Sequence to fold (144 residues):
Amino acid sequence: MSDREFGGNDDLSLPKATVQKIITEILPPSSGLAYAKDARDLLIECCVEFITLISSEANEIAEKEAKKTIACEHVTKALEDLGFHEYVQEVLEVASEHKEQQKTREKKQSKLEQSGLSQDELLRQQEELFGAARSKYNQGPSDS
Fold:
């Protein structure tokens, strides 16, 4: 099946740098093997096709269950239905690892939290900046 069958976009792709990094991890320079750019581009096309195929099948499974969100179970069922059952266990392990990483990952601080300033101090600074901007605007154009 082609992404064109899904009304897809010809611009679908994966970042070349990311794919190249994966290839380099699998085939380190010390192996003496090279990977041609056209082979990398073909690999990217194959990956996009595979993702489209699995996503489409998982979407159909979710729709049959009257679900609006594709869940891990839908993806694993799609893999099984399409004959990729040998990947299901590894996919489940990776999904489990990802969930654990998400739990333990530190919550990113917002710029507000990073500033270390209180709401009142930030408001005062904002008012000063607005005042300075207002003053500069009211002075009119400068002859610089």
In short: Residues 1-7 have pLDDT under 50 and may be disordered. The longest helix spans residues 37-64.
